[in-house]
Amino acid sequence: MKIWIDGDGAASLPKSTFVAQGGEGSVYRLGDRAIKIYLDPGRHLLAEKLVALSSIHDVRVVAPRALVRRRQNGSPLGYTMRFVTQAEPLCRFFTRSYKEQLGIAPEDCLPIAEGLAARIRSVHAAGALVVDANDTNFLVGPASREVFAIDVDSYQTPGHPATAIATSIADPRLARTNRFDEGSDWFAFAVLAFQLFTGLHPYKGKHPRVAGADERKARRISAFDPEVRWPRATYPVDVIPAGLAAWLRAVLGGDLRSAPPRDFGAAASLATTSGASVGVATAANARHRLFEVGAPIRRLVDGGVSLWTLTDRAVQRDGVTLGAIPAGALRAELLLGKNGRAALVWLDPQGRMKLEGIGGPVLPIELHGDALTNVEGRVLLHRGERLWELRLEEAGGSLVVGTRLVASVLPHATKLGEGVAVQSLLGATYVSLFPQPGRHEQVHVTELDGREVIAARASGRVASLVVKGRAGLERGLLRVAPGTGGGGGYDLTLEPAESADPLPLVALASGVVVRVTDAGDLEIFRPVVGDPGRRKVPQAGCEGLLFGRFGGKVLCAEGGAVYRMSTGPDERVSTATNRPA
Fold it and tell me: How far apart are CA 155 and CA 137, in angstroms?
């Protein structure tokens, strides 16, 4: 595509520059700039609104910089802005599993909350309003903790009112008025800040008499209320810094709408376990303890004859520590070889691949990457337009890492999740699964075209996807038929998502899949496209647990302990008696 950028001149947007497509437009990358092209040219950004937004002087508010046209002096069809790298949607930082994966403690949420407040203050200082300050319109750097505000073209400026806001952050004080003010922005901030620290929406949890988030919000019954029961995967309310907590109580439980204090105050407690008011615990007879490793486990890997575990500090095999994880390798993945050999693989801040052998040295190899992900003991490396599978092999008593090309991808439009890759090909959504070594099966999921996939996880030929929807996040369960590398057989179910966590699922060799639901129940089904069978194990209390498999059984980890799960008689699902209503 040929374009004209005001103040810069002619430019080209080849296919390789495509990043993503949303409900309003497509985004491309040109160096350190992003180019947004509206799908409907009639909804383009007006020059006078661009001028108004340019008065926001906070560089982390990703405001439009210059208009983009089809040709010089032509009608505007988009705009340029800063391209933000190494950042994820804020909603991902609400989930306990993601925080633990990154090593984010409750106190690490403080600079993120301060960054959110600073972005909103800078918008207000320019005479504008954020309005739709939802959890996908802010990005956070996992390492830097920097906060960036995006979708700035939707902000309200004088003469250009905003019209849309996510219901999850809408101020009940202005319900059904279609009016917004600085106070409604601060109410939205309060909702986000509460979720950031605790992992719970302030009007979720179970109240004994008032059901539904909308009714709770209207009656100002927040999760601060002592009668509200919290899910077990959340953090206790006392991890919120004292000064901020007092302000949140007044906003979420009343009608205070002034800006929060600039000094949030020291945290009253930094405990990382749930408080006294939690959800239903797992039944004692549902779990059998196998071993404990002395530190929180962040990965379970089935090695065939041995069970491998990773903590933030060490690698264990069958509960026995084999080696320490080097400093700077917090997000290392485990690559398994033969004869009990293994290696840790990670990327340094410059994108260079690093290796650490477990049970023997690893010969160095010069590789760079943009991202890594694990596929049940295998590792995928994304670099530019290529997706590689890494192999651990032996050479003269030493370990060496080999590579196998498994897919060609668009460099800026590919997102890796555990066991899965999601690609947006000019707005068409393709999901790739890797059920066996060297095997890549890809399907075009037409129902997700033009929608952003926030997070994903897969096991075998089943994937759990978190998708940005019109009314909030949705959870997609995707099953892919064997032999669909050229596209074809799949089914997809979508339902509202309580969080951006794709939630655990495990495909067993017995031909069933076990997944955790938002309610903490277990759901058992077959990975067969079109099979309607489902069996639920209600009130299993599985929120926040890490899941894996070994020896044909489902495993879970809580803290540093590993358990074998029992999911019921024969761990089977009937297609005759368990059809969904």
Answer: 11
DSSP 3-state percent helix, strand, coil across the chain (nearest 5): 15, 35, 45
Domain region containing 99: 88-252
Closest CA to 374 of 453, 323, 438, 434: 434
Q: Letter for the amino acid at 263? A: D
Residue 193: both structure tokens together: 């800040």
pTM of the model: 0.85
312, two tokens = 């933030």
Going across the sheet that includes 25-30, the strands are 9-12, 2-5, 66-69, 76-82, 33-38, 25-30, 18-21
pLDDT of residue 488: 57
Q: Note whether 233 and 92 are same-domain residues.
A: yes
**Are 7 and 54 within one domain?**
yes
Range 439-464 average pLDDT:
93
Q: Are residues 92 and 229 in the same domain?
A: yes
One domain for residues 196 and 104: yes
284 vs 340: which has the higher pLDDT: 340
Residue 221 belongs to a domain: yes
pLDDT bucket at 138, cuts 50 / 70 / 90: very high
Same domain, 238 and 199: yes
Percent of the chain at pLDDT > 70 equals: 92
Question: What's the pLDDT score for residue 192?
Answer: 98
Give the residue from 37, 66, 82 where a domain finishes: 82
Residues 206 and 111 occupy one common structural domain: yes
CATH label of the domain that carries residue 156:
1.10.510.10
Under a CB-based contact definition with an 8 Å cutoff, are residues 118 and 150 in contact? no
Q: Rounded to whole angstroms, how far apart are CA atoms 227 and 352? A: 51
Same domain, 10 and 93: no
Q: Which of 235, 252, 269 is the last residue of a domain?
A: 252
| pLDDT (average), residues 283-288 | 62
Structural domain count, the chain: 3
Digit-coded pLDDT (tens) for 390-415: 999 887 778 899 999 998 899 999 99
Checking 304-310 for CB contacts under 8 A at 24+ apart, the result is 305/340, 306/340, 307/548, 307/550, 307/555, 307/562, 308/334, 308/336, 308/342, 308/377, 309/557, 309/562, 310/334
d(CA 142, CA 272): 19
Three-state SS annotation for 40-58 = CHHHCCCHHHHHHHCCCCC
